Structures are given as C-alpha cells and as structure tokens.
Amino acid sequence: MSRDPYVDAKSDVEASISNVGTLLESYRRIQATSNDSPSLIEARGELHSALQLLETDLEDLDESVHVVEQHGDRWGLAHVEVAERREFVNNVSSEVATLMRRQDDTLGFISGTLSTLASQAGLIGHEVTEHSEMLDDLSTRVDSTQSRLSRTLAARGASLSSS
C-alpha cells in the first residue's frame, strides 16, 4: 500500500498556518505602535512570503485530496474521511483568501496614503514656488520704492540747501 500524500501535505499546511499566525500577531503588534516603521514593512514582507508558501502548501494538499477523491479505495479511506479532508482544504483556502484580501486592502490603503502624501507634497511645492515669486516681486517693489524715496529725499535736500 502506498503512503497517503495527504498526511505530509497537511503537516506542511499546519506548519505554515502556525507560522502565518505568529507573523500576523507580530505584524498587528508592530502596526499598533507605528504604521510606517521599517519593522512594519519587513513584517508585511515576511507575512506576504509566508502566505505565498501557505498557498503553495495548500495547493499540494488540495492535489492530494483530489487524488484520494479519484482513487480513495487505494488507501482504504471511507467517503466520510475524504469529505472531511475536502472540508479542511476548503476552510483553509477560505482563510488564506481572506488573509490575502486583508493584506491587499492594507497595501491599497498604504498606496492611497502615499498617493495623498505625494499630492500634498506637490501642492506644498507649488505653494512654496508661488510664495517665492511673491517675495521676489515684493523685493523688487521695495527696491524701486526705496530708490524713488532716495531720489525724492535727495531732491528735497538739494532744494532745502539752496533756499
């Protein structure tokens, strides 16, 4: 009798689930303290990698269940056992899909935040440019006014000294 591939594949999936759980707790703990720290970015990357590995392990588990569904008599499995295996795969698949969506939502939120910040930076840059132009214009007007005032004072001084 051949060895049931489900046992090894399920063991890999359970180990991956445990790892993802640990990484998710770490990610949430870091996120609670800071939304933009390098540690959070690193934790997000590790979580993403672990989810991808879990997805691969889950595909292997799904394939092993598919094989058993096709050739269950080869391993002497009852239909109930095969149904339980399929249910386990479906439940884990659903959880992984939910986690991936949440991660995508988080990345979408971060991307939106970064876009907003970039837009605000552009507006601030535009404001700075406008203020710089206004200050240059003011400086030119002050210089012109000072020059006229100096000429007027010189003319008055000359007219007072000649009187």
TrEMBL record:
Keywords associated with the record: Golgi apparatus, Membrane, Protein transport, Transmembrane, Transmembrane helix, Transport
Entries under SUPFAM superfamilies matching the protein: SNARE fusion complex, t-snare proteins
One Gene Ontology cellular component annotation held by this UniProt entry: membrane
Domain called T-SNARE coiled-coil homology: residue spans: 97-152
One BP term from GO: Golgi vesicle transport
InterPro entries per UniProt: SNARE, Syntaxin-6/10/61_N, T_SNARE_dom
Gene3D superfamilies: 1.20.5.110, 1.20.58.90
Subcellular location: Golgi apparatus, trans-Golgi network membrane
Topology within the bilayer: Single-pass type IV membrane protein
Family as reported in the entry's similarity comment: Belongs to the syntaxin family.
Listed name of the protein: t-SNARE coiled-coil homology domain-containing protein
